[in-house]
Design brief:
This protein has two domains: about 200 residues, no CATH class; about 200 residues, no CATH class. It contains 13 helices and 14 strands. Strands 2-5-10-7-9-8 form a six-stranded mixed β-barrel.
């Protein structure tokens, strides 16, 4: 108890030197808190994205295998029936299907921007119909297996303003802009001509507001305001009548129970009849777009931490040695009075622990305050080695084009993080104190007193 009281008295007597050491220690702890919080958060995000993108599987052409075949393998699409059948696999957590069709208007005109309307901008999308004649579709018709997957509604780019998408046959919802352009309202009907020449009639049961801001390149068919949303059953019925399967197609997205099941699911698909020209693939592009910046942020933060810790630890050791050296005579007197080396060293360690304790309290609070601004800055500013920013657009290629953008950094503060920072601070503090103690303790008491005289 005496040693502890004496340590506190020494801190009070040597306020200037202790304050300097405390400031350096606090700065190191604050930097460590920021770096560890950024590293912890980015690692958690990486695991989350790995789980999401590793589990989300799409059916797509295997262009590499087709090219390697030197013309012996022809592209063969997978049938809609097989896609739906695979959706019942025991390896899946859930599956999402989106029926799509393109059509031209029989009694309805599309929304056109000024460039398209004047014919002086953009490009048209010419698609051959069943007769081989090139036609320019004006509308996209979509049928989603789950309402939650309807494009734009989840991220707020679209919202239903009136009516609803009912389950009745040929029910449809259209954009308010399209309804206004054609003087349509809920309860009215519209006629469309599919690519196979079939004319369908849909009944408007709801209107949605579209707030997307996209540059329309391929004409009105790619304008989200010209998208007509129908029930999944409506397009499924039409697809069953479409013998050639060229007018209505099905996009399938499968969610595996575990990313490790990809190989087993692929083998099951092959056994069920998936063509060799097709493959099951994850959305690697989106995964890399998200994860690579996160890895860069994590690596950068730890690199900065390492550099600062090296210089900071060196500075602390120097300050500790100088501080103990200035108190050499005091230590010599205590030793000459009979105090053992261990007790003297313990007193110095107590002083260091008390200083570190206060520095920890202040440093962690400072680190917690600046972690978010620092993380936001690193997200917003592109790396010198990377041409794209950290505000990354994430899109999946399986048909659901809702976009998520990582714009805001939310640092994670956990007991493990506090323990890591505390452990690091204690190690650095003990190393710095030990070097100073060893420097002085190698001398005998009488030698220390003689040097002072």
């Amino acid at each position: 108890m005496y040693i502890l009281r004496n340590a506190m008295s020494n801190i009070n007597r040597n306020k200037g030197r202790i304050l300097l050491i405390g400031i350096v220690t606090t700065a190191l702890i604050a930097v460590a808190t920021v770096a560890f919080s950024i590293n912890t958060t980015t690692n958690a995000l990486k695991e989350d994205y790995k789980e999401r993108f590793g589990s989300e599987v799409f059916v797509q052409p295997d262009f590499e295998k087709i090219q390697e075949s030197n013309g012996t393998m022809m592209f063969e699409d997978m049938s809609n029936e097989l896609k739906v059948k695979l959706g019942k696999s025991e390896h899946l957590k859930e599956s999402t299907f989106i029926y799509s069709a393109m059509a031209s208007g029989e009694d309805i005109d599309p929304i056109e921007d000024e460039k398209s309307a004047n014919g002086n901008g953009g490009m048209s999308m010419a698609i051959p119909n069943d007769g081989g004649e090139a036609v320019n579709p004006e509308f996209q018709i979509k049928g989603y297996s789950h309402e939650k997957d309807i494009r734009g509604f989840a991220n707020g780019e679209r919202k239903l303003t009136s009516g609803s998408l009912t389950e009745e046959a040929n029910a449809a919802i259209i954009s308010e802009n399209l309804a206004k352009e054609n003087d349509l309202k809920i309860g009215d009907s519209l006629k469309l001509k599919l690519l196979n020449g079939e004319i369908i009639e849909l009944k408007i049961t709801g209107l949605y507001q579209d707030m997307t801001q996209e540059e329309i390149i391929y004409g009105p068919v790619m304008d989200p305001k010209n998208e007509i949303i129908v029930t999944f059953a409506t397009l499924e019925t039409m697809a069953n009548k479409d013998k050639d399967g060229n007018s209505i197609w099905l996009d399938a997205t499968y969610m595996l129970k575990n990313p490790d099941l990809l190989e087993a699911f692929t083998e099951e698909a092959r056994a069920q009849g998936m063509p060799e020209s097709m493959k099951m693939a994850t959305d690697e592009m989106s995964y890399n777009q998200i994860v690579k910046p996160m890895e860069t942020i994590s690596e950068s933060s730890m690199l900065y931490l390492t550099i600062i810790l090296v210089f900071g630890a060196g500075l602390l050791i120097t300050l500790s040695v100088l501080t103990v050296r200035e108190r050499k005579y005091e230590i010599g007197v205590l030793r000459a009075m009979g105090m053992k080396r261990g007790r003297v060293a313990r007193g110095l360690i107590y002083e260091s622990l008390i200083t570190t304790g206060f520095a920890l309290l202040i440093g962690i609070m400072l680190g917690a305050m600046v972690s978010k601004p620092v993380g936001d800055y690193m997200l917003a500013n592109p790396s010198k080695n990377d041409n794209m920013g950290y505000g990354v657009v994430m899109m999946n290629s399986g048909g659901n084009n809702d976009v998520e953008e990582t714009k805001e950094f939310n640092p994670a503060f956990t007991p493990q993080l506090v323990a890591q920072v505390s452990g690091l601070a204690l190690v650095i503090s003990m190393v710095a104190t030990s070097v100073g103690v060893i420097y002085v303790m190698r001398h005998e008491p009488m030698q220390i007193l003689a040097e002072r005289n």
